[in-house]
Amino acid sequence: MVVKELKQDIRKLTRQQIELVFVEMGEPAYRAAQLNEWLWKKSARSFEEMTNLSKKIRDRLNNRYVIRPVKVRSSQRSADRTIKSSFLTHDHQVVEGVLIPTSTRMTACISSQVGCSLACSFCATGKLPKVRNLEASEIYDQVVVLKEMALNEYDIPLSNIVYMGMGEPLLNYREVMKSITYLTSGGGLGISPKRITVSTAGIAKMIHKLGDDGARFNLALSLHAANDQKRSQIMEINNTNALSELREALHYFYSQTRSKITFEYVLLDGFNNSIKDAEELFLFTRQFPSKVNIIEYNQVKDVPFRTASAGSIDQFAGYLHAKGVQVSVRRSRGKDIDAACGQLAGKQQVSSST
User: Which DSSP string corresponds to 201-242?
Assistant: First the structure.
């Protein structure tokens, strides 16, 4: 039996490898620059779009290679204009992305993994098993789709990108960093690195590596409790990355990048929303040039945690503000849709397997 050879994904090739492809075709190496522009600057989804390459070249590329863009599987629109989309990858995995419009910005929240291995107890994604890491091109594609959606739906350009969707970005370090290169470089989308935030549950070793690599984007740490006992109850990762290790890693990151650190803190009613919790948060965050985002919890089915009251949120934030902390409150978006990270993908993974 003859097994048909599968086409190779052209977006997995380096610039040097693409140059060799054209040389082997008898074409000048500069064709690689043209192809790369189509792939990463113009976001081409097929070789047929590459009109400054001859039809002969396009046909030869099409015979040997493939472009596998992620596709929108479904979208939900909230009354507050938030749009939550599920994306389908070439191997039929489902991940999520969210377009979040506010009065001052248009933000794309994107995923870095299919599922997640960290199993944070308050998170819908934590209920989904980690299937695989997303490739850099699949992360890039989410931004492209949400960027187009922002213009088509609201006639407003995308202003910010947050790696706060499904998965732990620092456990997919190589592909996340590659995707940021495609998003920020002049040969890519040209987005300012300071418009990009990578959110981590706290992998100390990889935060060190971000410092070594001179990361120019913003780093956010999902803290959610500022003492080890309480944090370990809701975030298993704290058992192997205790607050003392994270403290040292964040000091190193700041010393290398001079970038202010963002702390994310989801308020869970009766668990981490007391004034004592606020005091512990203040004592931890004051050690770094930082800001704190207080996040209203978006409740998840079959999870025991509940949203803190508006009064409790204001009291918690007010304590920090009085201490001189730069603090903002992020109210929950998309309450009328599957807005909590992992909810929409979880439903669709279940439906596709039944």
Answer: S--HHHHHHHHHTT--SEEEEE-S-SSHHHHHHH-GGGGTS-
Quote the percentage of the chain above a pLDDT of 70: 93
CB 140 within 8 Å of CB 148: no
Q: 94 has which bridge partners?
A: 88
The more confident residue out of 354 and 320 is 320
8-66 and 71-353: same fold? no
**Assigned CATH for 71-353:** 3.20.20.70
- Rounded CA-CA distance 161/112 in Å is 12
Tell me what pLDDT residue 336 has: 64
Q: What is the pLDDT of residues 289-313, one digit of tens each?
A: 999 999 999 888 778 899 999 999 9
The answer as to CATH 3.40.109.10 being correct for domain 8-66 is no
* Residue tagged active-site, from 109, 120, 123, 341: 341
Q: Choose the weakest-confidence range: 5-9, 48-52, 149-153, 212-216.
A: 5-9
Instruction: Write down the catalytic residue from 19, 96, 135, 280.
Output: 96
To the query of whether residue 109 is one of the catalytic residues in this protein, the response is: no
Which residues, 6 or more positions from 147, have their beta carbon under 8 angstroms from its beta carbon?
108, 157, 158, 189
Taking the model in full, what pTM does it have? 0.92
**Angle, CA 267 vertex, CA 263 and CA 270 arms, to 5°:** 140
Break the chain into its structural domains and give their ranges. 8-66, 71-353
341 tagged catalytic: yes
